[in-house]
């Protein structure tokens, strides 16, 4: 999979303050091929998102699958696999859901959407995704689009919340613990939350989409990947997270998540994700959605 010459730009806009405990950010991506060939890249493993392609066409999927046409309004559950995609020309508005956002806005266990990309109309949610797609198509500019997204999501938050404050706090505490590099084992994570390992397993599948063991693997992996994204000239060996035994240990995780070696990954151009990660660092301070820390509760 090679990347054609192309231009890509991503703008990040923070959601309304009352929505920030639940959403990562609104991000608006423009892709334009310079030579008529598809511009290609890979999405990194991350939390769930809904995406509205309001201009152009895109192909996508998960690594190991054939690229396919993506519905204009599509939903991607939490992922443990990279997501290859391609476009000649596209304008896409995306909204990332943190685990608290999944609990508040998505009325399904997260493992039902784990490593799944499908039409947004199939999601059980009080959020009017169809209205958001219309807002993406008809807004005059990105600021107007973000404001209309705010209004739709605030309506769901105020009138059809799916969890109470106590549940929200439990989800946030679990997410905070997952983000802690000192939590290196399932037993440590369960102990931090005062849960049995069996209880954490059930909770993790329902809220995060994956087993605790896989999530801890994904977290150490994205911490390492983030070092490379911050400094593309750095060596993998120097970037390794402290929870890796050695380079071979990391290489096995890389093949698990990307189905290729780190060397093969670096041999490809990353015109879309490279530009987006730089813009994300400038706007939010970190290059990957999976590293965004959960915000404090605002009592809905």
From TrEMBL:
SMART domains per the UniProt record, alphabetical: HTH_ARAC
Domain spans labelled HTH araC/xylS-type: 168-268
InterPro entries: AraC_XylS_family_regulators, Homeodomain-like_sf, HTH_AraC
Signal sequence, renumbered to the chain: none
GO molecular function term, any single one: sequence-specific DNA binding
Keywords associated with the record: DNA-binding, Transcription, Transcription regulation
Record protein name field: AraC family transcriptional regulator
Source organism phylogeny: Bacteria, Pseudomonadati, Pseudomonadota, Alphaproteobacteria, Sphingomonadales
